[in-house]
Amino acid sequence: MATSTSRRSRLSWKNWAGNQECAPARIDAPSSEEEIAQIVRDAAAAGQRVKVVGSGHSFTAIALTDGRLVQLDNYQRVLKTDAVKGQVTVQAGIKLHRLNEELDRRGLAMPNLGDIDRQSISGAISTATHGTARDLGGIARDVVGLRIIAGDGSIIDCSPEENADVFHAARVGLGALGVISTVTLKAVPAFNLHAREVPMDVEECLANMDDYIAANDHFEFYWVPGTRWAIAKFNNRTAADQPKRGAWHQFRDDMLFNNVAFWVVCRVGRVRPSIIPRVAKIMPSSGATEYVDSSYKVFCTPRMVRFYEMEYEIPFEAATEAFNRVRAYIKRSGLILSFPIEVRFTIGDDIPLSTTYGRRSCYIACHVYEHTQYQQYFEAVEDIMDDYGGRPHWGKLHFQTAETLAPRYPEWDEFQAARKKLDPEGRFSNPYLDRVLGPIA
Ligand SMILES: Cc1cc2nc3c(=O)[nH]c(=O)nc-3n(C[C@H](O)[C@H](O)[C@H](O)COP(=O)(O)OP(=O)(O)OC[C@H]3O[C@@H](n4cnc5c(N)ncnc54)[C@H](O)[C@@H]3O)c2cc1C
Question: Ligand 1 pocket, 263 CB below 6 A?
Fold first, then answer.
């Protein structure tokens, strides 16, 4: 096991966005379940806290610790696939891009994914990471079994049939219940997606939103602030034998347009904000895109431009009104924003701390370029989302506390009971969890 301790040098760890940093007492990179369990037992004996990090892609302080930081980069194997049952069992640290490639080699795929594939599977499910879909939910909804190491170092197998109370809560556990060691997930036969990206008037997009959702497997849209432009994205399963996107085509779309050109706009816009509205009006009108590719290559694109993000889940029925209020606020405030607002949809689930618990959902996400002030913008949008009982993404910036969050989650007490059972001493807590979950009681 690779280990670093603070006695030799002052250790530090930063998240992807660079807005969260901590100085752990020790950093370990175990390569077996037994090593992870031993770290938890040693920490318990020493009265230290423990925090596992995935890929550090959360914008919140959820993964920070001054205790023992556990990185699972040496713990990324696919353990088992069962094409008949449609299941895959993996070590919890596996990154989604590696999982996607390994599944593809076996003729399988994840049913749905978010925008990127850099996260670990355990980090993704722990914060209720999601994409967009008419008939599907977030990634945690596809979990069918977990092995989890509790605060005393004991290892618990859980599924709907075994330790069902633990399974129920631990699929979206915020890292507060224990260290997830292995994850068993649903996998479907590999499939292609036919992708279409169409610039359109945002009013037209809103007027047709329900029809677009109903008629497409995966629909989402981006609105470009300061303009009338939306970019609607329609992804549909296809069995048609269409030519796949070539390497140049993929590089042009994913790297040149979405990253390099966008990065230039953000950099120049920081010095001369007045250019942003002018470029924003031109960029979306530059044309529609259409291609076919393997599902995971269509769902996920590289994100090289660093940013800070807040995303709220609200009931599906509130989507248009809430979105229009965000637009009206941005216009009123005079804010000049270089990043679009992203709007996505999923069906609900029954996972106590899942943002989509018990309802069909709309997600509204706001971003700002790195090192940009976001407080005023995000607080104003959060005020709007509060009116709809909005639930913030656990891995994205927000200003809520346990007091304001508890009434938004009908099974809050069930989650807290599982937390008390698995981690009575708060071994896996940190200041963020203290804020959003409150004390263990
Ligand atoms: C560029 C970018 C794009 C994104 N796109 C999307 C998107 O499309 N949809 C969406 O919903 N979110 C999105 N996110 C948010 C991201 O998916 C979540 O924040 C996710 O949690 C990050 O995964 P991670 O592996 O980096 O976890 P980390 O941020 O490292 O950790 C998150 C939490 O999981 C816990 N954890 C990790 N591993 C374990 C384990 N083995 N056992 C117990 N707890 C564990 C950590 O302790 C921490 O509490 C995006 C983020 C970025 C930076």
Answer: no
